[in-house]
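Exam review. A common question shows you a sequence with its structure tokens and asks you to describe the fold in words. Practice with the pair below. Do the first one on your own.
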Amino acid sequence: MNVPKDPPSAETPPGPPRGAATMAIVRWALVLLTGLLATGSILSFAGLHLGSGTSASSGQIYYCPMHPSVVENHPGECPICSMTLVRKPEGKASPPGKAVLGARTAGVPGLADVDLTPERIQLIGMRTATVKREAIGGDLRTVGVVAANERGLAQINTRFGGWIQKLLVSETGERVRRGQILATIYSPEVFRAEQELLLAHGWSTAAGEAKPSPDHEDLAGGLDTNARRRLELLGIAPQEIDEMLRIGKAVEAIPIRSPVDGYVVGKNAVAGVAVQPGSVLFEVADLSRVWVNADIYEQDISRIHVGQRGRLELASYPGEMQAGKVTFIYPVLDSGNRTLRVRLEFKNKSDRNGPRLRPGMYGTVYLDLPSTAGLTVPAEAVVDTGETHYLFVSKGGGRFTPRMVKVGAHLKDKVEILSGVAEGETVVTTGNFLVDSESRLRAAIEGQTSSEGAAVQSSTCSTEFDAQRFPDKVQACRACEIQHRGMGTMEDDCKNAIPKPWR
């Protein structure tokens, strides 16, 4: 028999749904986790600001290597180029990208001392050398150009008109001998003068045989002399006149002979062409001795004198030296390149191919100099602006200072220093271009200009910043103007990146 169960009593409350306890545990776990995260964020935020304040109070500075005018007291990115700001190394008075304030170098406008870390020195491959006192002498090297000896140049022309009958030298560059016939010319004027001489000579001979009166003999002799003199004035050689009198017949083809030994360097004569008096038919150059014109720098002029020995080395004959000497120093200085021309004279040897020294050849000229003592540095250490000379002296500890110097003689790969450095000092040789760029940039950050700190023209920095309250920001603003003037919007971008107190 089935007994029915009793229905539940209405007074007994129902139990919690299934999973309620689990949800409660999860809910409290989430609340606890959120609290922990909030606490960590607050502590992290407070620690960051505390660290920043500590960094600022301890003098920590962060700067942009590309734009050293961007300086902050906390890490971040450069607002101009987005590069990560670099922290200033410990123990430095200023960051490597920023010049030491007040480190102006007397006599070198627009430059400032440079502080570089060992890593940057190694990165740019810098090399240094020591200023040494050593013997200065040996030789002075310069470039020379071979030229024809002007004393051996001859222009061959005629004093009469006519026509070229025959051309015996028809090529430029051909070697000719003194007295060699170059061409023959027919001239009606010379032909008539020859006939007159023959006639006068015949009268003089006949008068001498017939023994006439003295007056008749003097007249015949005078006609003979005058006719001969006329041919000589027309440029006919005495031996040509004697030969014509010997054969007793006027010569139609007048020979044109070379007055010197040498080479035909110019030819205007063509067979059958009419010739006018004074026309240059040939140019002959005697190349047995040649000139070499060399340019000497202005600072070396006092070391050159007439009679000084010199040597010439041509690229065509490497290792072979030609001996000569200085024969003339030109009186005028070339204002364009500040050099003085010096002329040397050399004997010109010949081989089967002709003269070894040919006009137009370039070569290296070595001038023997007396030996003296002086300070020298490698030539690459000196920065030449065209108006001034300076170099960078190492002060140790990664600091380099620009120094104005006065240079003397240039000796191969070295330069004589007359003043500005002392013996034993260390100067930068390789990498000084990068050091120079860094020095100019840092001088610009200081607000220096080429006129030793003159204010930037049309500067707006004084209006943008309060110079009394924020002089450092005015200085950074002027650095932007110096660095980026004329570079589009980079100047405005640089100024906008300077932190403003009211931001």
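Now try the second one, then compare your answer with the model answer below.
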Amino acid sequence: AFFNHQGQIDIIIDLKKPGDTASWERAFAVDFKEIRGRRKILRALKGRLEHHEEHGWPKVNTENYVSGKAGSGYLKYEAPFDSDAHNRLYGGSAVYLIVPADSYRMKKIIELASDHETAVRARAAWRLANYHTAETERLLRELLLDPGTSVLTTRSGESKNESIVYPVRQAAFRALRAMEVGVEKPAGYNKKYPDSFLE
């Protein structure tokens, strides 16, 4: 049984017939593949518990964890269309898995902060809010000068307005603010740029 932050049962996985109960009562691995079989599920759970005991548990902001906000202690991942998670959980919309921001994900997120794609760098900066270290703070400060741009289109009635935005700078600023680091808004900051583009 898995409990939510209010201490109520969130889901139960039936280990006699794992995966044969309700679609959301399934176990998935980091690569979005389904973990089938009692022994494999218990092995994965034991490994995760051991990791947390060794490295500590993520700090969780219980007000924001569901939405995956910067600094919430959780990360929001969209399951790839060809993955087990997407195929098993799809109900007519996108499939997201919200997972703990535990320490073994941090190295990969730092790598993605240097990706050639602006959107990937922005998402990485947003997620780094969960890992306040000297290294991540330094990296986020550097990303406040990131040159990557995107076009933000807004509509009012029949009129359309397009403006240049800096998604990585936006994400780095909001991440640093979530870490409670006092920084000035970066050049090109646009308060209308939605968080949903960064998650």
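Model answer, second protein: The radius of gyration is 19 Å. The chain has a mean pLDDT of 86. Full marks require stating both points clearly.
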